[in-house]
Structures are given as structure tokens and as C-alpha cells.
Design goal:
alpha/beta
Length: about 190
């Protein structure tokens, strides 16, 4: 058996083993509201910071709401990371454009906005940090009021349209991103 044939066999077998997981990750799911959502944690669209900013600044984040991925670059471009995210439930809740990280908090508290409470009157007026808090373990606040990049205790949300406007990450990944992202990091939501 030649090397090319062996290589093709290995690649084909690997693709066959991964295909069911990819299909499940992209499969449609019906949520209680009757809206069909799609998980999309496996098909990130590649981004290049130069398509969005003239320089990297202190660091750069591009959050792609279509592929549900957050892209991070450090100040010199030597550290590039991609994280799966949750995104806003609807386009009306999605803010796009340029912003920046203005503050960070470990153990964030949560105060739902008036619009959130109008849509869901069962929401509390305030929630302390902890396992029931939808902001997870870490939060980075944008200079847009009420918009954050934060963690979530509900891992089912990642890869879905599930937020009221924020970008959510797994708690482990927001902790990683939080540690390397300075205040002043430029952010673009596309």
C-alpha cells in the first residue's frame, strides 16, 4: 500500500468518524418558544483582524454572530484564539459595530434590563453572583450599556441564539479570555 493510499484511508476514516458529531452540532432543535434554533459550534468562519481594525491595539476581539465564534488576538498578533459563543436570540437584540472593553469583573452580579423584564416578567430585579446567575463566573463590560461578553452556567446555550444581546462563552473559556484581555481591548461585533 503506497503512502498516498494509506494517507487517504486515514483521512477518510477520520472524516467518517467526525461526520455524526458535526451533523449533531449543526442539527436543528425546537425550543419551548416554538422557534427552531441551530447549534453551530463546529463551523467557525475564519476572521482576520486586518479586515476590521487598522492595528491590533492593546488586543483585539471580533465576535462573529453568524458563525457564533469569538476571535481574540493579543497586541503583537502572536496569540490568536477562537472560542465558541452564544449570540442574541434575534437580530433585533443584536448590536453590531465597534466598541471596547471598559471594565471586567469576576463574580458578576446581574440586573436584568427593563426590556428583559418586560419580555419575561418572572426575571428577578437583581441576582447575586453564583450558580444561578446567567452571567457565569466572569464578565467583560463593553462601552455599550447592558452589553457584555460573559460566561454561562448553562452550557446548552453555547453555539445557539440564546441571549438577550450579550455574547456568552463557557465559564472555563471566559476565565481564559478574561485573564488575557486588558481593559481597552477593541471589539467588533459582526
Amino acid at each position: 500500500m503506497s503512502n498516498t493510499t494509506r494517507r487517504n484511508l486515514i483521512l477518510t476514516a477520520g472524516a467518517a468518524l467526525c461526520a455524526p458529531a458535526i451533523a449533531r452540532a449543526q442539527g436543528a432543535q425546537l425550543v419551548p418558544s416554538g422557534v427552531v434554533t441551530r447549534r453551530n459550534a463546529s463551523s467557525f468562519k475564519a476572521q482576520d483582524w486586518r479586515d476590521h481594525f487598522p492595528s491590533l491595539g492593546v488586543a483585539t476581539i471580533v465576535s462573529d454572530t453568524r458563525s457564533r465564534a469569538l476571535h481574540y488576538w493579543n497586541a503583537d498578533g502572536s496569540d490568536y484564539r477562537v472560542f465558541a459563543t452564544s449570540v442574541p436570540k434575534t437580530d433585533e437584540l443584536t448590536r453590531r459595530g465597534y466598541t471596547k472593553i471598559v471594565r471586567k469583573r469576576v463574580g458578576p452580579t446581574w440586573t436584568p434590563t427593563a426590556d428583559m423584564r418586560r419580555r419575561d416578567p418572572s426575571l428577578p430585579e437583581f441576582m447575586d453572583a453564583g450558580p444561578g446567575n446567567p452571567l457565569g463566573t466572569h464578565a467583560m463590560y463593553l462601552d455599550w450599556p447592558a452589553y457584555l461578553i460573559h460566561g454561562t452556567h448553562d452550557t446548552r446555550k453555547i453555539g445557539r441564539r440564546s441571549s438577550s444581546g450579550c455574547i456568552g462563552l463557557y465559564n472555563e473559556q471566559i476565565a481564559e479570555l478574561f485573564a488575557i484581555t486588558p481593559v481597552g481591548t477593541q471589539v467588533r461585533l459582526v
